Amino acid sequence: MRILALDLERYGPFTDRTVRFREDARLHVVLGANEAGKSTALAAVTDLLFGIEERTRYAFRHDMPALRLGAEIRAADGRTLRFRRRKGRKNTLVDAADAGLPDDSLAPYLGGLTREVFCRAFGLDSASLRAGAAEMLDAEGELGASLFAAASGLRGYRALQGRLEEEAAGIFMPRAARDRTFYQALTRYEEARKAIRQGELRAGDWRDLNEEIAEAGTRLDAIHAERRRIAGEQARLARLKRVAPLIQAVDAAAEAAARDEAPDQPDLWTDSWTDALGARIAAEAAARAEAERAGAALARAEQDLAALPLDEGLLARAEAVLEAFRGIARHDKDAQDLPRIRAEADALAQNLAQLAARIGLPDAAALKLRQPSDAARTRVAGLVREGRALAAEIARLTRDAAEALPGSDAAAAPAIDPAPLRADLRGLAGLRAEVARRDEIDGTVRREAGLLWLQAGRLDPPVADLAALAQVPLPAPEAIARHRQAFEALERRRERAAERQETARQAAAGTRLRLRLREGAGPLPSPDALARLRAARDALIGAGPGDEAALRRCREAVAAADRAADDLVRDAARAAEQAADRIRLEAETEEMAAAERDLAAIAAARSEAESAWQAAWAPAGLSAAPPAEMAAWLAEVQTLLDALASVETQSIEQRRLAERVEAARRPLAALAARAGLDLLPGLDPGLMLARIEERVAALGEAWERAREAEGRARAAAEQAARRAADLAEARVRETVWREAWNLAVPAIGLDGAAGPDEADSALAAWAAVPAALAALEHQQRRIAGLSRDMEAYRAEADTLVAALGPDLAGLPATAAMKALHDRLGAAQERRARRTDLASRCREAAEALAAAEAARGAAASALADHLGERSEGPAEDPAALHARLTARRALRLELESRRADLARIADGVAEAELRADLSGTSPDAIEAALRGLALEEEALDQRGKAAFADRDRAERRRADLEGGTGAELALAQRKAAEAELAGEARRWAVLRLAGLLIGTAIGRQRAGQQDPLLARAGALFSGLTGGAFAGLAQDYDAGDEPRLTGRRASGELVPVDGLSEGTRDQLYLALRLAYLEDYAGRAEPAPFVGDDLFLTFDDARTAHGLEALAAIGGQVQPILFTHHRHVADLARARLGAAVDVLEL
């Protein structure tokens, strides 16, 4: 379909504007400057074909209902249609008289295109061109992806496909994983089924459960009683350990206080009297030290004051000396600058002399008299620029005229017209898709079958033959769940028995340790030993009188029995504890043996369960893993079996497509003969179609090359005539310039024979003269002023030196003034110091008087305080104060120790604490605490085991009493079933979406590869100016086809090896080749480019224009641009083949 005329009746800024496209043109260039309406005309093409958008941006001049567009279009078969498009929601197509047209009137001309497809596939701008090239780079030049991107105009589909596959993999994969949502829902489903089975209640289980709770409660009560006993004993021993050091400290403090007690006037020597004594002693010492310091300060101040003389004459003229000193820097700078300024003035005078010589004048005075005006210099400068521009223009026009001589490069038209062959190919358009579908399904079947067998071999246990496994009965998921529950129940029983065994073992170890500790503290009497001693005593007494030895043995037996009875009474508590621990040890040993027997019974039951589990899998010939793993294995096997059925279905479809493709062999052979193509016998119909399309494309290229050569020859002749006329006009302008030149140059001292370069040199010299003259006069004025200032300063300095420092008369003025300034500073500093010293003398005298008075008052107060002692010998005040302070410290320490003891004794009297400590030692306390800690640790382990048993049983009983366990588990199972269904649906949608994108890319690769690549290679060669001979495909390490550029030398360059501009040209070549291919199969729409070559240089732009014109025979290319040089390039390269329209 071609647009013959575009009517912009009321649209954007346009009113009743018609743009006509020349029918015989192979390229239309619409040129519009900024704000000329180029973007509006570009949008008008889309709105014309597919309707004006509801919220259009182009109703800023005309009201929405008044918007109108019109056009005349022609189909490939010659049909034409004249219509108009109005703004609205329906019935928007009308004819010239505003009579309604059917909404599908444009369907035969658009071929089923939608607005989005038209904008993506038949519209292209510079940004989309660059983005499409970047998409090819991201796909690493993969052949199918590159063709798909160029054909559809879509971008980001690779990343979209990756995201879809990644999201689908997060839901389900054949191998189970915890992070996949499908298997998370499956796990919840299995746990709910397990909970339903566990929710069943039996009478025997209920009785056993209650007995287990009661037994655990009894064990806990006994443990709590034992804990209370241990806690009381630990508290007593810890208290004794805590107070023992404090009691020793109290005794030591009391002894020291008793040694220091003295009866001297205890009623007067109170703490307050002692503190007052210390304060008066300190005050008297501080006053005495202050008086001594004040006297020394007064003496130093008087001595310093006498040592400082003053120069009154110098101080009187201080301001004059300071002013002269401030002028030193200015005088020195003037003296330093004066030689430099004189040298600069000499250089300026010399520069003026050189300028006069360059211009041709005798001296600087002549320069000042002969300066040309600014207007004269400006006129000469303008003539210089104009002359040079004319010379360059004449040279360029002369060169262009020589190059533009018309040649004879027109070639004869080809003998075969490709149009009938293209028409026949359209009838076979569906064959390519069927071939691609056949090949795709064949590859899919082979790939998925291999993948299925590979996945089956990777299972654990592996499956050698999926088809055979499908015929073998396998355990149902319910049976697997029952076995899994049986194994889990046995494992729980084993854990409880092992826990009982470990608890009993630890308790027995603690009991043995206590027994050893008691036995290590000394022999422990027992009732049995006492009974044996008494029996021996009674036997000796019952034997009657005997000799002396028998009497002695009788007395010894009586004494031994009495001692044993006394020991048994004294250590009754230890003996009872020892007997209790022996009984406890026997019970704990029996508990360990019972747990060991339970473990053996559980092991035998597990062995039987394992045998039954393996027997369930025996028909399949598999060595079964644990039930949890086999449940996942069974799910994976079922998935593989479902996939195997899908592969069989695809194989049937592949055979059907192969038969349909083979039926097209005879029509293809006839078409190849008409195209002059000799095909190999037995060639695949898909390859036959590709060879025929390639042959038709080559015939079309030859036909187009001949037409282009004819247009170029005609355009070259027209251009040569234009350039000859331009050259004659330039020479006339050169004559006029020469006359103006002869009149202007004498003003700057030259004659008419001088050229522009000489005039430039003279103008440059004259331009420097005014500034040089002004600079010279400025420097001369500065020299006079500096000399005057320096003489005045030296006269003033000599006057001051003669009056204040005659000894400095031989020095330079600045040196003498620096010396006078130093003397003045020293004199001012001495005067300031004298004033400060006089003030210090007054202050020191006043401080000395005040210090003497304070010392007398402090001594009097100390004597009065000591006079309060009416008796006793005289004593040094400082020694008395030290003795009284030490006595008070001992008393306070004793009180503090007793208070600390009362605070940590837990309310126990000191006498009771001393009684408890008198009967034991620190080592015995530590040993007893250690033994109690071991007992408490053993009790803790036993308590944890008993509490865990009771808690587990009580929670089980609460679940059973609540009666909601099975119902809740049923609801959870139903929720898991719904979640499984939802996740399966979501996975299917994501998986199908990813497969659709992959299938589209695969079809593009398989169905249009050879003919499309051949045509795209020819266009790419033209776009690159012959730098590349065409395109080819190569294969990477993964055997994936990759798109490459083939240089003229045969070298293959991958996409990532191309420059950015060359990748843009490659994408454009693929897009144009696709459009040309589409035109051979369906009714094509116009191709609309918007400033397509914005990033191209002139050479690449020219090649791009030729490429657009190359497809102009099948597709109508329309290029919108606001760059005039693009239109000029199109005229120069294409001549009459281009239609340039200006808005």
Automatic annotation (TrEMBL):
Q: Could you tell me which residue ranges the YhaN AAA domain spans?
A: 1-206
> Which source organism does the UniProt entry give?
Methylobacterium radiodurans
Where does the record place a coiled coil? 480-507, 585-612
Please name the PANTHER family in this protein's record.
DOUBLE-STRAND BREAK REPAIR RAD50 ATPASE, PUTATIVE-RELATED
Pfam families named in the record: AAA_27
What is this protein's name?
Chromosome segregation protein SMC
Ordered alphabetically, the record's keywords are: Coiled coil
The family database entries (Gene3D superfamilies) matched by this protein are listed as: P-loop containing nucleotide triphosphate hydrolases
Q: Which domain of life is it from?
A: Bacteria
Q: What is the lineage of its organism?
A: Bacteria, Pseudomonadati, Pseudomonadota, Alphaproteobacteria, Hyphomicrobiales
